[in-house]
Amino acid sequence: MKRLLVAAAVVACAATAMLQAAPAAKPPRKAPPPPAGPDPARRSFERRAVEAAIWGMPAVSMAAFRKSLPGIGAEANQVIYFSKPLEPRHELLTANNNTPYVFSVLDTRSGPVVLEVPPAGDKVVLFGSAIDSWEVPLVDVGPTGDDAGQGGKYLFLPPGYDQEVPEGYLVVPSTTYFVHVALRPIIAQGGKLEDAVVTSKTLKVYPLVQAANPETRYVDAYPKPWKTLPVYDVTFFRDLAQVVKDEPAQEKDAAMLGLLASIGIEKGKPFDPTGETARGFDQAAREAYAAMQDYFITMGKGQLQVWPDRQWGGLNLTQKEGFTFVQNGILRVDERAGGFAFLGTWLPKKLGAASAYLTAVRDSTGKPLSGQKSYRLQVPADVPVRDFWSVIAYSLKTKSMIPNPIRAGLSSYDKPRMKMNADGSVDLYFGPRPPAGKETNWIPTDEDFFLMFRLYGPAEGFAESWKLPDVELMNGPQK
User: Per-residue pLDDT for 52 more than 50?
Assistant: First the structure.
């Protein structure tokens, strides 16, 4: 120890001597000149606006959905059902065309709201989830939900609600004032579309104060086009500012709310950019879109490879945390945006065995799927599903069904109308025109697209013993 102390003293003395012997310090260097181009304040605005858009993606998606309700004659605290399955004119993110969805937006700003769910029937089962304004799942509904298929009255409480709650309800405290409900009426053996519609119209939504004499208005969303998609220009930031205005601040978002204030989005203050500022927000929205698009299509980021020798991917999600995207103390902003909210909505709180999803953005050679080329997908006869399978082509640009008057997808329900192979498999075709004689097996794709293959009631561990073939290029560019 004495040797160490002596050594330390020697080093200290030597250092002191060196400092005393050192020449006078040179004057500090001047900071390098800023790079050519916009001033620092402008560059800061651009960076922060882009990151704010990526951070705010789930909230803006839900805000756009709420804003779309008047277009179909609907309001909050009503039941929005489909008398027929969705078509491409119903612009929702990666919705399927096999189910007549039922939606509701609950507005709890004036107090708790009740969602009354019927019990599962022999012909139709309702299941789905309710999410907050940031797409965080609050509760699951139906056989895999809190009512376990027995039906029940879900009572959604606004943030900070501290009044006495009556008995007989499944109580769900919400982190935001708006709650978004999406349910799927699944048709069982012997059931028909008409049964699903009737079941949807037994769902009830009403404020708790009307519980003694509840009334629910039903709106059929099928007849009209429905435009619910986010808009990637200054509108994106107007919607984000509305969310900041309407919803309570959450601790996990404190840092980003500070950055938002620096670009003019702050609770209690107006947000109405014009001129050059509005054009700056336009550009930021476009750059955020490009970043999320790149994340979505990149294998290993937005897509997790399901099989090492296939191009099929699965979404990069954080299901163990209840899809909050908060993992190990980190809010996974890119995963939440480019991995999901950019292209989807309504994750369940608990991921059950009801369905599984596979996504293809590339053909068997690894090249992106092009709307100007023709492709074939051979679906094997032994798809490991209890209920049915489905494949839908979505616009790579909008993440909604590709607009066309023919069809957006095909499923195992369509087998009686399709031409089948002798071994029970079926060849599906994608492209600007159908192969001769295969019109019933064709899904029109006249723009760049991606596919989502859904398995309803998948066998447990299906990906370990079964593989879906890749999408194969057929004839190259179409004239």
Answer: yes
